[in-house]
């Protein structure tokens, strides 16, 4: 690998991806590939922190891989791999677990939210951010492109890196979060006070990357706005603001330009156009996905090669860590 800074990110294969995942993360992965050495992971070990049907997990893992490729990730430029193929993640995760305060994990918003939803909360859900820290730190990553909801997890990653470095000696690069200017937090189309999420029981709340074009248009038409009728980009009109953010992410226009264009046209026309902007924006990805997803041999060659390259880098860091904590080298 050339001497460029490292970018690292991952997405869970726990169901289909939404346009929230796309706008907040995946879309931004693409442009980083030329300037940085990028690693993009499919974090199947994170996905099992809530119960998964094994056959669905297998399918979803390959779906996410095919979506990565369809969106424009290039295995010639970036390392694309599946987390469970690189055992060093679990190994570094264990070491970091021994240095993480229980209180800090219990304060994580995502843990608190998920713990509310499940009656039987497992230790893996609590320790989830530690595994995420291991993902990032194994590769000496400088930047982590993610949505706003991952902010606390990046903070804990930085804390752990600093703690390890000061307890032993300089070992880990301290990573920084990279969030998009617009769209770092895409909200539910039905309830703009909650994040767009594939686990939303109301299917109209989210648009999946693999939804049909018709469903995409319909869901946008049914999205909540407000009764003021005014076309403004403001927190008081959270539903409209969210739709403007989605538009801006796909069209490249700024929220101000969008307001100017639609302030005299109204919500109906805006939603009509937004439907087209999203459908057009996703069309190439949706078309490529079908082709790539059917080519099992290609998918396999990508994840095998990715795992090999990732393992090499991960093991370099893991060996240092093991030595510093006092394990006897093999
Ligand atoms: P996950 O799988 O929940 O989400 C994948 C990415 O999508 C972003 N995202 C959103 N962005 C904007 N609006 C939304 N409504 C929205 N919903 C999701 C997330 O912020 C994320 O960037 N813990 C991570 C996966 C992970 C990871 C890592 C990420 C594991 N190890 C190492 C970076 C580096 C997660 O659960 O993402």
> Which strand order does the major sheet show?
1-2-3
Gyration radius over CA = 21 Å
Query: Termini distance?
Result: 27 Å
Shape: globular
Overall tally of structural domains: 2
Proportion of residues in β-strands = 5-15%
For the record, what is the CATH homologous superfamily label of the largest domain?
HUPs
Helix count from the secondary structure assignment: 13
The CATH class of the largest domain: Alpha Beta
Note the main sheet: 3 strands, parallel
The percentage helix is: 55-70%
Class by SSE composition: mainly alpha
Q: Can you list the ligands bound to this structure? A: tryptophanyl-5'AMP
By CATH, the architecture of the largest domain is named: 3-Layer(aba) Sandwich
Strand tally, please?
Answer: 5
**Unreliable segments of 5+ consecutive residues:** none
Question: Explain this structure to me?
Answer:
- The protein has 330 residues and is mostly helical.
- It folds into 2 domains: 6-183 and 296-325, Rossmann fold (3-Layer(aba) Sandwich), CATH 3.40.50; 213-289, Tyrosyl-Transfer RNA Synthetase, CATH 1.10.240.10.
- It is built from 13 helices and 5 strands.
- The chain has helices spanning 19-32, 44-47, 54-71, 88-97, 102-106, 109-117, 123-138, 151-167, 213-221, 238-251, 255-262, 267-294, 296-325, and strands at 6-11, 37-42, 79-82, 143-145, 176-178.
- The strands form 2 sheets. A 3-stranded parallel β-sheet has the order 1-2-3.
- It is globular and about 70 Å long.
- The model has no long low-confidence stretch (mean pLDDT 96).
- Tryptophanyl-5'AMP (TYM) binds at residues 8-12, 20-21, 23-25, 43, 46, 132, 135-136, 144, 146-147, 149-150, 153, 184-186, 195-196.
- One of its GO terms (cellular component) is cytosol.
- Catalyzes the attachment of tryptophan to tRNA(Trp).
């Amino acid at each position: 690998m050339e001497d460029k800074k490292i970018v690292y990110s991952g997405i869970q294969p726990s169901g289909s991806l939404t346009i929230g995942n796309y706008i907040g993360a995946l879309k931004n992965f693409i442009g980083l590939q030329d300037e940085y050495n990028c690693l993009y992971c499919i974090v199947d070990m994170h996905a099992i922190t809530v119960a998964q049907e094994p056959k669905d997990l297998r399918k979803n893992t390959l779906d996410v891989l095919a979506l990565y490729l369809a969106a424009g990730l290039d295995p010639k430029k970036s390392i694309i791999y599946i987390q469970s193929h690189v055992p060093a993640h679990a190994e570094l995760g264990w070491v970091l677990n021994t240095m993480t305060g229980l209180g800090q994990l219990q304060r994580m918003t995502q843990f608190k939210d998920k713990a509310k939803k499940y009656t039987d909360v497992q230790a893996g859900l609590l320790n989830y951010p530690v595994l995420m820290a291991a993902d990032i730190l194994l590769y000496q990553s400088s930047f982590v492109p993610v949505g706003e909801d991952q902010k606390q997890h990046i903070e804990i990653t930085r804390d752990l890196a600093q703690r390890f470095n000061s307890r032993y000696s300089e070992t880990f690069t301290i990573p920084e979060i990279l969030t998009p200017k617009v769209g770092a937090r895409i909200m539910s189309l039905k309830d703009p006070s909650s994040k767009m999420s594939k686990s939303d029981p109301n299917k109209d709340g989210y648009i999946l990357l693999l939804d049909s074009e018709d469903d995409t248009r319909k869901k946008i038409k049914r999205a909540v706005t407000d009764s003021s009728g005014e076309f403004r980009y403001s927190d008081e009109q959270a539903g409209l603001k969210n739709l403007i953010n989605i538009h801006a992410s796909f069209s490249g226009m700024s929220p101000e330009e969008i307001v100017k264009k639609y302030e005299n046209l109204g919500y109906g026309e805006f939603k009509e156009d937004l439907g087209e902007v999203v459908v057009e924006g996703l069309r190439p990805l949706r078309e490529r996905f079908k082709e790539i997803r059917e080519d099992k041999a290609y998918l396999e060659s990508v994840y095998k090669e990715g795992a090999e390259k990732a393992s090499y880098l991960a093991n370099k860091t893991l060996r240092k860590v093991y030595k510093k904590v006092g394990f006897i080298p093999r």
